[in-house]
Design brief:
It is a single chain. The protein is of the alpha/beta class. It has helices at residues 3-10, 77-80, 84-92, 99-108, 122-129, 139-146, 160-164, 178-194, 196-229, 240-244; strands at 13-14, 27-39, 42-54, 60-67, 71-72, 96-98, 116-119, 131-132, 136-138. The strands form two sheets. Strands 2, 3, 4, 5, 6, 7 and 9 form a seven-stranded mixed β-sheet that branches. Strands 1-8 form a two-stranded parallel ribbon. The longest helix is centred in the last third of the chain and has 34 residues, at 196-229. The protein is globular.
C-alpha cells in the first residue's frame, strides 16, 4: 500500500463515546461541500464547507468554511458558490476552520457515538471528515430500500420540490448550499419516517421517469445514426431491455 493510501485510512476515527456529563444532540443532519485537491501525492477529496443542523429543533449548529490542506484543483463556484477569495477572507476574519480534522473536531462538539446522523449519501461526508459512525439515517438508503434496490442514484434533494413543495438548490441553477441541503435532508427524512408509503410511491415514479428518459435518448441516438448512414448501424450500450434492467 502506498503512503498516501495508508495515511488515508489512518485518519479515520470513531465518533467519541457518549459522556453522561456532557450530553450532545440526539440527532443531527450533516452536509459537506467537497472538492478535489492536488498535492505531491496526487489528487484526493477534501471538505471545503461543513454544515450541521439539530434534527429535532432545526437549529443551525455549524455552518463554516473549511480551509483545505492542499491546493483546490478547481473551485467550481457555479456549483459550490464558494471562491478562493471567500475562503481567504473568512480565514482572515477567523471565520473558518483549518482542514478536515478541525472541521471534524467542531462537529464532535455537538455529537457523540449515540447521535443519529441524518443526510443524503452520507458516506461522502463521513469519508472527507475521516469519521466512523454507526448511527445513520440516509435518505438515499431509505429510497433504495423502499423499492428493494441496492441504490437509487436518481433520488436527490431536488425531489423536495415534488414531495414537500419546497425549492432547494435554486439560488442559481445547479448551485448547492450546504446549510440549505442539510435542512432539506432533515425535512425529507422526517417526512418519510411519518409517511413511508409516500416514499415508495415517489421513488417508483421517479425511477419510471428516469427509465423513460433513458429509452427516449437511446432511440434518438438510434434514429440519428440511421439518418446519417442510411442504415441502422447503431451500436450503443445495449438494447431498450438493457436500459430497463439498469
Amino acid at each position: 500500500m502506498d503512503g498516501r493510501k495508508q495515511n488515508r485510512y489512518l485518519k479515520y476515527s470513531w465518533t467519541p463515546e457518549k459522556d453522561p456529563l456532557r450530553p450532545k444532540c440526539p440527532a443531527v443532519t450533516l452536509d459537506c461541500e467537497i472538492r478535489d485537491v492536488i498535492g505531491a501525492d496526487g489528487f484526493w477529496l477534501e471538505v471545503i464547507k461543513v454544515s450541521a443542523v439539530d434534527s429535532l429543533s432545526g437549529e443551525t449548529l455549524l455552518n463554516t468554511l473549511v480551509l483545505p490542506t492542499a491546493k483546490v484543483k478547481r473551485w467550481k463556484t457555479e456549483i459550490t458558490g464558494i471562491t478562493e477569495r471567500m475562503m481567504m477572507e473568512a480565514r482572515a476574519r477567523g471565520q473558518s476552520v483549518r482542514g478536515w480534522a478541525e472541521a471534524r473536531f467542531e462537529l464532535w462538539q455537538h455529537i457523540d457515538a449515540s447521535t443519529v446522523l441524518i443526510g443524503q449519501s452520507l458516506h461522502h461526508d463521513l469519508e472527507v471528515l475521516g469519521m466512523l459512525h454507526t448511527q445513520i439515517v440516509d435518505s438515499a438508503i431509505l429510497a433504495a430500500k423502499a423499492i428493494d434496490l441496492p441504490s437509487v442514484k436518481i433520488f436527490g434533494l431536488k425531489m423536495c420540490k415534488e414531495i414537500l413543495n419546497v425549492d432547494v438548490q435554486c439560488i442559481k441553477e445547479g448551485m448547492h448550499d450546504c446549510l440549505e441541503d442539510a435542512l432539506a435532508s432533515r425535512e425529507l427524512v422526517l417526512h418519510f419516517i411519518y409517511n413511508p408509503e409516500k416514499l415508495q410511491t415517489c421513488v417508483l415514479l421517479k425511477r419510471e421517469e428516469e427509465l423513460g428518459r433513458k429509452v427516449g435518448l437511446q432511440r434518438q441516438r438510434e434514429r440519428r445514426t440511421f439518418n446519417t448512414s442510411g442504415q441502422n448501424t447503431w451500436k450503443g450500450q445495449g438494447t431498450v431491455t438493457d436500459v430497463l434492467d439498469c
